[in-house]
Amino acid sequence: MASLCFQSPSKPISYFQPKFNPSPPLFAKVSVFRCKASVQTLVAVEPEPVFVSVKTFAPATVANLGPGFDFLGCAVDGLGDHVTLRVDPSVRAGEISISEITGTTTKLSTNPLRNCAGIAAIATMKMLGIRSVGLSLDLHKGLPLGSGLGSSAASAAAAAVAVNEIFGRKLGSEELVLAGLESEAKVSGYHADNIAPAIMGGFVLIRNYEPLDLKPLRFPSDKDLFFVLVSPEFEAPTKKMRAALPTEIPMVHHVWNSSQAAALVAAVLEGDAVMLGKALSSDKIVEPTRAPLIPGMEAVKKAALEAGAYGCTISGAGPTAVAVIDSEEMGQVIGEKMVEAFWKVGHLKSVASVKKLDKIGARLVNSISR
């Protein structure tokens, strides 16, 4: 079965009481995860390819959703990465080659061991026990790097799904998430709040990492929900933004964030966009340390709320700001106000888009049979 990745025992967070309290602080481990071992083969017999070529798509994602740091995320429709994968006799059996990278960036490495798509593809091939076939991969980036929209996860998800599809879809979604996590661990840390929704679609709660336990949260199909995504011309590398996080937090903030995360989950299941927005806006631990690192972010949030958004926060590690509303028309108005605030206060150009929830996740776009 697939190997599991474990929470690092290093670097504890101290939860302290801000008022008089003679008791010693309560400690909890920081959300840093390291892979203890690589994935293992899950299929008894090596499958043969059922297609000579496949093309897949994986959507952008919004991680954290305010108080859900490292355990809540969702997929958004219309933005994402594409992977084209081919059976290639010129590539050594059991290996993969990255032939071309196009789209928003071409500066990524074509070495599959140093590329998000390559790492996830290799992990998926290992799970399937592929030893007799060589593959070549083309990556088309629809997402910019360091945008806070799960760029690395989209590449990893599209690649993992492509390998699974070309060999007849032998693996389930949780196995594909584990393959994607091999990639995420090398880029920004072992956290599934981007890769899980990128593969599974919709909202996903990561209940546990040891063992990995994923809980899809179904937003009612008869309710409307729109994400206003405003991305400034500013890069916020995930590793840098994670380094800014506090190692010590007041117990009262821990309790507050826990209650807001619970409210957010309830809002998703009930289709309550208003409560979802309120909870999403209420993070007292992560957002306050990251917002000052993104020029104009605090003003952008204020502008969104004043324009009628139900809530606004940083998408993932940033710099994209995300607001929620239940009307696409209102979303366009909110987006304009957010763009204006980024320019006036942060002196940053930005682009706004209004997107629905992607309920499908990474999927096959087309294929060529053998």
Automatic annotation (TrEMBL):
Keyword Coiled coil set for record = no
Q: Which SUPFAM superfamilies match?
A: GHMP Kinase, C-terminal domain, Ribosomal protein S5 domain 2-like
Q: Which GO terms describe its molecular function?
A: ATP binding; homoserine kinase activity
Q: Which Pfam families match?
A: GHMP_kinases_C, GHMP_kinases_N
**Top-level taxon of the source organism:** Eukaryota
Q: What GO biological process term is on the record, naming one?
A: threonine biosynthetic process
Specify the GHMP kinase C-terminal domain's residue ranges.
265-338
Signal peptide range equals none
| Keywords assigned | Amino-acid biosynthesis, ATP-binding, Kinase, Nucleotide-binding, Threonine biosynthesis, Transferase
Which residue ranges does UniProt annotate as crossing the membrane? none
Pathway as given in its UniProt record: Amino-acid biosynthesis; L-threonine biosynthesis; L-threonine from L-aspartate: step 4/5
Provide the family line: Belongs to the GHMP kinase family. Homoserine kinase subfamily.
Annotated protein name in UniProt = Homoserine kinase
